[in-house]
Specification:
Residues 4-234 form the ABC transporter domain. Pfam families: ABC_tran. GO terms for molecular function: ATP binding. The structure is a single chain. This protein is of the alpha/beta class. It has a single domain, classed as P-loop containing nucleotide triphosphate hydrolases (Rossmann fold). It is 35% helix and 29% strand. Strands 6-7-8-3-9-10 form a six-stranded mixed sheet, sandwiched between helices. A four-stranded antiparallel sheet has the order 2-1-4-5. Strand 1 (4-17) and strand 2 form a beta hairpin. Helix 3 crosses helix 4 (116-129) and helix 3 runs parallel beside helix 5 (145-158). It is globular. The protein starts with a strand and ends with a helix. Bound molecules: adenosine-5'-triphosphate (ATP).
């Protein structure tokens, strides 16, 4: 079981207004121990959800405090953290760097499987297992949004991370594809941390954090978290 700790975390960025530089606080006073297998993060636009998620694999560094993933500090050893934490972006086109699904999965496998022919066969098998085999050599740009997001998930899983962090992974998807992603998430063995505006998806999680204006406004069971969030929205 994975263990993620945020200890006294603040995130601030400089904002420039003419010659003046001010400080904008994106997150403040975040103390969390994340050990549950399925954790959701909900909150209004601009509340700080992506900032929180990006801290977890060292994509951004805390201004104050520390983030530890299975005891590894995200600033001191970001590379080791990123080997453990797979990150799924909202837009799969921000994630998929190769022309076709099979090439992207092969890229993820290159450290684990040295021989090209073996790597290609393994990549194909991973796609096939998700029902994506027939799309293996199709251009990424010819796939639907849902297919791309499933390819992204396969690409991230190919690295065998202990933790999956997904930033609004269903936002661009229609109902059918949202259900496909939801089912894919339900099957994962990894620890899963997902930010979402999809409150049905949020209800799937054991623990849900509500972020409001850069603070954790609620932390607890999903149904209570959703109620809390609805209360903030009125
Ligand atoms: N590098 C940056 N410089 C200045 N402001 C930033 C920076 N990164 C994020 N912000 C601001 O911080 C706030 C929180 O952003 P964040 O992306 O974490 O919100 P979010 O809850 O994920 O929003 P959404 O639901 O719209 O994706 C927003 O007001 C955003 O504009």
């Amino acid at each position: 079981m994975s263990d993620i700790r945020l200890v006294g975390v603040d995130v601030e960025v400089p904002v420039f207004a003419g010659r003046d530089v001010a400080t904008k606080t994106l997150l403040s006073g975040v103390d969390l121990v994340l050990t549950e297998q399925r954790i959701g993060v909900i909150g209004a636009n601009g509340s700080g959800k992506s900032t929180l998620l990006r801290l977890l694999n060292g994509l951004i560094a805390p201004t104050r405090g520390r983030v530890l993933v299975n005891g590894v500090d995200t600033v001191a050893d970001g590379k080791r953290v990123r080997q453990q934490v797979g990150f799924i972006f909202t837009d799969p086109l921000a994630q998929l760097v190769m022309s076709t699904p099979i090439e992207d999965i092969e890229l993820s496998l290159r450290r684990r499987i040295r021989r090209r022919s073996e790597r290609e066969a393994a990549a194909y098998a991973l796609l096939e297992a998700r029902g994506l085999g027939k799309l293996a050599r199709q251009s990424i740009y010819d796939l639907s949004g849902g297919e791309r997001q499933l390819v992204s998930l396969t690409t991230v899983l190919a690295v065998e991370p202990a933790i999956i962090v997904a930033d609004e992974p269903t936002t661009l998807l229609d109902l059918r594809n949202r259900e496909l992603m939801r089912a894919a998430f339900a099957d994962l063995e990894q620890q899963l941390i997902v930010s979402t505006h999809d409150l049905d998806l949020a209800l799937d999680f054991e623990r849900v954090l509500v972020v409001d204006a850069g603070r954790i406004a609620f932390d607890g069971p999903a149904s209570t978290a959703v109620e809390h969030y609805r209360g903030l929205m009125v």
